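Severity: low
Component: inverse-folding endpoint
Summary: output formatting inconsistent between runs
Steps to reproduce: submit the following structure tokens with default settings.
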């Protein structure tokens, strides 16, 4: 039986997961083929796809589509996107007996349209939607007006209805489905989470311990922990300013934070990874960038974590979910939104991180600069359970 795995990537952050799953599927079944649908989000602009090429038999590229004020032009792009997608799927149906699909549990327009249209292809047997942090929390609301406009916008083509989620102040947060789409939800999970022992018999909810496979961890000799990595965000103050003090106080706190961090790790090599949305030369507030070696945006945070996991002493980020992934590698990982935000902001993002599947002893949320390095001496080993992956990969 000819089997095909299609991995749909609308953002570089999921490529490491797809690379590893493709690698494993091919090892478990040599006749399996893997194809990547690459939807060119702006974060792919400077991204180096080279390390992933050999893991996919074919890579098809699609333009990124989204809601736009220029409706006619946008509709043209959407129908062009749909035509290319359907043509590719028909070709694969003629060549393979069974097709499995893997994509994020995202309601953004490209994935929404693809997900809706997958049901018409008879040879699609399994649809897997990956999730690890839920998009809604106690400090968000549904924007009825924006939700209504999205419904009107999507009338000419088929897709699932969505809700537009904003902060309580009206800042856009995310799109979420109004109804339950096809496919099973697979939640990315801490491989050492105690809750994994309790859910093995639940057929409605699947959990995937992550990282599913890391050649770097398993094959390389243990290296010296000589790196500390800061994942940046150039303009924190404009993100939810309602949760922060005046800008002068914010800058003073940021400078104190990085001075304390640099003092704590003066014997280590300091690295800085800009956020993909930051323009070249824009760095997080308060940092003395001359003290840091720079990663560029040709690689995702997840790829860097995987590549250097045996060398990284600690990871720091204001709010990035990259800290969740690094904590799964038993790397001490720190956020510092609690140090900057007021009580309302802390409550909101505490809720975002309050999910059983991502809780980790190696993830710590800093309130004060005295807590820098607090969990650096934790030790743990990575787990690996092949049966879980065989079930999800259908091999």
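Observed output (run 2 of 3):
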């Amino acid at each position: 039986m000819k089997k095909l795995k299609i991995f749909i990537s609308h953002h570089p952050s999921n490529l490491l997961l797809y690379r590893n799953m493709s690698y494993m599927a091919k090892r478990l079944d040599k006749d399996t083929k893997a194809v990547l649908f690459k939807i060119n989000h702006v974060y792919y602009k400077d991204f180096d796809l080279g390390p992933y090429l050999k893991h996919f038999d074919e890579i098809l590229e699609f333009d990124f589509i989204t809601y736009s004020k220029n409706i006619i032009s946008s509709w043209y792009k959407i129908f062009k996107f749909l035509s290319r997608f359907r043509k590719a799927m028909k070709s694969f149906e003629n060549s393979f007996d069974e097709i499995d699909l893997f994509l994020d549990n995202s309601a953004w327009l490209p994935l929404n349209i693809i997900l809706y249209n997958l049901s018409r292809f008879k040879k699609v047997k399994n649809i897997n939607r990956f999730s690890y942090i839920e998009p809604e929390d106690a400090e968000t609301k549904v924007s009825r007006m924006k939700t209504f406009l999205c419904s009107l916008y999507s009338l000419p083509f088929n897709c699932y209805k969505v809700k537009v989620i904003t902060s309580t102040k009206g800042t856009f947060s995310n799109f979420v489905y109004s109804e339950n789409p096809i496919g099973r939800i697979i939640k990315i999970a801490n491989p050492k989470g105690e809750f994994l022992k309790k859910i093995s018999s639940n057929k409605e909810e699947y959990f995937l311990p992550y990282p599913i496979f890391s050649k770097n961890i398993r094959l390389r000799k243990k290296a010296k922990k000589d790196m500390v990595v800061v994942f940046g965000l150039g303009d924190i103050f404009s993100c939810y300013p309602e949760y922060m003090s005046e800008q002068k106080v914010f800058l003073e706190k940021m400078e104190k934070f990085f001075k304390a961090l640099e003092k704590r790790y003066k014997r280590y090599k300091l690295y800085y990874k800009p956020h993909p949305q930051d323009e070249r030369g824009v760095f997080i507030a308060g940092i003395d960038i001359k003290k840091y070696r720079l990663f560029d945006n040709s690689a995702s945070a997840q790829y860097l974590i995987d590549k250097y996991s045996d060398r990284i002493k600690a990871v720091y980020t204001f709010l990035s979910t990259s800290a969740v992934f690094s904590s799964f590698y038993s790397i001490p990982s720190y956020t510092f939104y609690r140090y900057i935000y007021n009580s309302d902001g802390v409550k909101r993002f505490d809720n975002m991180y309050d999910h059983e599947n991502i809780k980790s002893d190696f993830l710590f949320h800093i309130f004060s600069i005295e807590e820098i390095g607090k969990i650096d001496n934790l030790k743990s080993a990575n787990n690996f359970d092949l049966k879980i992956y065989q079930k999800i990969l259908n091999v």
